[in-house]
Please model this.
Amino acid sequence: MPYAHITGWGMVVPEKVLTNDDLSQMVETNDEWIRSRTGICERHVAGEGETSASLAVEASLRALKVAKLKPTELDLIIVSTSTPEHLFPATACLVQDQIGATKAGAFDLLAACTGFIFAVNMAAQSIRSGAITNALVIGSETLSRFVDWGDRNTCILFGDGAGAFVLQADEEPGGVLSAVMHSDGSGGDLLVIPAGGSKHPTSAATIEEGLHYIRMDGREVFRFATRVMARATKETLESAGLTLEDVDLVIPHQANKRIIEAAARGLKLPIERFMINLDRYGNTSTASIPIATVEAIENNRLNAGDKVVFVGFGAGLTWGALVAEWTGPLPSERRVYPGWYRFWARIRSLLLRVVRLIEGILWGRHS
Ligand code: ACO
Model:
């Protein structure tokens, strides 16, 4: 049975930065309040032309470059997002087209901030079963497009960005060791975008009432988060046959520094064992774990052979954790420039559209 190794990683955030001071010009808040209650100092927000798909494509190409894997070798692409480009088609299909992953099946997964953990687990299980060899998992969000910039309870928290992992099959033991996934829909109303779906399709009335924006019961989400983070970490370690002493680094969902500190207390682990970078990015939802992972690697806090726990919670309610033995790229002499594939993918996509158009003219729209 092959093992599912994490062999590539990449991240990207929009250039535009929004500081706490900038926010204090928009709503009644201040830098001191935001820092002390959340740990956040600034966040990145998407500019014109930047979308969940464009950020996902950039992060993916970086991850593929690390793994030295061609987009054409991918079997599966999962985009975890709560802020897709459209209700359909899936953002993953747009990414598949734009990177030229010609043989990959692609779909979106929605489990809010826990989504990246769920998606990595799905990809790892597909590899472990022998069904596929190479997978790309992306967490990408443009939450700034769904935030009510007049609501100080939510607009201070979120940021935009994307992160991606490449997972590959290999006979060498290691990689994803275990994962736990949990959900409790009875708490669905605690964090919700009420309108724009099939229950409340967008209408003048839903827009008038602001139902297309994020609504959150912050205190309840906080309480829930502090309960589940430590529990899920312990569960996944137990199913991998590991203990807390084996863990080199915990990479938690970056929602609130106080939530991460509570998890550290619950696990009786020193806070230094946790990767925290929410001060510069805010809560990028499902992108926060891969973004933090890339920074952990860049800062030498995560190295080959380390045992790392990813743990998160989010809307749904959802929560989960995953433990992996960190691998790094599989040995390979070859050079791969996935960025070139973007150019060829554009031409391929254009040709496919032209062929579809010609076929439509030749055969008629209804034949
Ligand atoms: N600036 C200044 N004051 C504020 C602000 C603000 N931005 N926001 C709220 N306040 C006020 C409140 O009105 C309240 O005033 P009151 O006591 O007069 O009523 C006071 O500050 C305290 O408010 P609380 O809500 O109790 O503040 P708390 O310490 O709980 O912090 C926060 C609020 C930061 C939202 C916290 O509850 C939190 O982080 N919750 C978790 C949220 C989260 O992680 N969500 C993402 C989940 S992941 C996903 O799926 C997207």
